């Protein structure tokens, strides 16, 4: 058996986590990844988040993890013979992944556009902070400052109003960008196989962070005329102190809030007539709830919560997560094949499909001689076709049985790239995102007015079927054979009880691809636990690095869902390639927590390799010094003295630029601060001095002074103001879309721009509930009389059967 990407050659001209993770996912799928490095090597070879010493000739553990199964070729950019070798590698390859940061990649001849001109057959994925063109294309940035520009630092309401906003720790934006880069590379690879033409994929890490760290705030504000949250407040209960440690509990629905009230012995807190959201109700009773939890043991709380079907988990970190029973049963971790530390296993599992077992990462230049001696292999170029619309998923039909965020974000990307996606709901249990806008039931067609549903479901068709009924299940069984892919994100027991497990579905269509996206997987002790983004973040360690060291971890409350979605998007494409090669159907298990464990990998790796438990540090971080949020003059749009800028000094040269830009004050001229170690030892002093300089200036003034000098800096944006960023406007990241009920509103797109289109991603608005029932059922041979009967009996519908008590609030 060969891996899905066997024979696919990728030239890796990237540095940093994003490009390395992209090419790791491709290598895991079987691609031959050739990492091209300068003589000094990729800077990641010397990286450790804990500052561990990397001996000469050795590599950091993170590099060893991210470079498993790759080859290393060293190129001296000053040697003509070496640049000729690069050209030979490009000519014989299928794809290139590129980012700035190495002397090789920054050769003018190896810019993405120059490569694309010479090698139009290649799929070239460029990963940059803002994109390859536009007013900000050459501005400095870090993962930390991009969080601020995206609105992700402040937008979910993370932290509390008595302190500065707090970023999501762990450089999560870089990891998410890598997963998106891999998914987009695979999508346009499929198109290149079909028509012989390559693509230049221009990926913006800022746009990735908008999709991963904010919850469609522009669409929300434009459609409803208000931002969905105006202040920072802790999640309740969230991560809480129990008698013997930390425990995580969450309420994503009104029912879960009612069950939590009952579980804690407070049925009196339940108010089914309230106009308050569940978040507001929980905050009213927060102190009493925390008092109750402090008297309970973690295991007892979790057992009780599981019995009530309330999302819950232990709070993971780099030290404890590998010993958790669920992960041990599922073999969620494995040993690094070269250096012996512990690392996550693959972020998804495919039945009957061979994903590559990790092979040792290469030493610097290990494969150079072999590639110099090897004649360039001949490429087989498919015939060029012009009879299609150049959307990579054209002709693919997807049955979308997902709800909320994780699953719909996967199928939405497929719809934006040309798939026919049928979004399945039932009138009695519509997609949960229809219910989370806080719109009163007295408003006409309230269920059609959710900005979140609108943002996640454009380009889809809407079908309602009550598959709790026999007639509904019969229609579903008739629909499945017409579909290439099924995607669902119920807890495993739901699908199994409906008789829609993979074996049963395969009886209906043998080559079906079925993507299952449970929170914790299809087996293991936590199999049936419900999961929302925040619980996945708690269980994987993503929460551990977020927040202030003197307080409990803050849940990112965002990345767990879209991260699961983009990893599932990668997995379904590997499954489709396997089917293309073999004709076989595939079961894809894309558990949310497996994807999260991979993007939180650095914590486990650092602890296993160096014995260091990474800790949250507010807005400081391991990659820059100084790095922090600094308050500036002015009031925000809500009348508060709450305006901030993010500053991250990544290099000694940037420090010199910063001190010169602010007037070379005496404190900044201390020679001890010239090196990163000295600056890190004086973090508190620098924050006080630099904070005083910022405090008397506006955010715009600080950004103008520092950005012009080449220092990474950003305004901490309110997320609903993303459309004010000139760079996003230049790239057309938001597209306005009309709707039959709602006002026209901007909708975010994919985080890429393409050399060969499409120029526009959104084609039709999100469907009304059951909007396409008639046309889809007619395709199955259902008569109009039968459709009328199905509607009368509630098997299909165009309005919810009931309004659930208690308003739910978006995250």
- Structural class estimated from helices and strands: alpha/beta
- What fraction strand? 5-15%
CATH hierarchy: architecture of the domain at 625-711: 2-Layer Sandwich
- Termini distance? 43 Å
Provide structural commentary.
By secondary structure, the protein is of the alpha/beta class. Among the domains are: 251-310, no CATH class; 625-711, formyl-coa transferase, domain 3 (2-Layer Sandwich), CATH 3.30.1540. The protein has 30 helices and 24 strands. It has a 7-stranded mixed β-sheet, sandwiched between helices. A 7-stranded mixed β-sheet has the order 12-18-17-16-13-14-15, with helices on one face. A 3-stranded antiparallel β-sheet has the order 7-8-9, sandwiched between helices. Strand 13 (397-401), helix 15 and strand 14 form a beta-alpha-beta unit. Helix 5 packs across helix 7 and helix 6 packs across helix 7. The protein starts with 8 loop residues before the first strand and ends in a 19-residue tail after the last helix. Residues 802-811 have low confidence and may be disordered.
Task: Provide a concise account of the structure shown.
The protein has 811 residues and is an alpha/beta fold. 35% of the residues lie in helices and 13% in strands.
Task: Please give a handful of descriptors for the protein shown.
single chain, 811 residues, alpha/beta, formyl-coa transferase, domain 3, seven-stranded mixed beta sheet, disordered C terminus
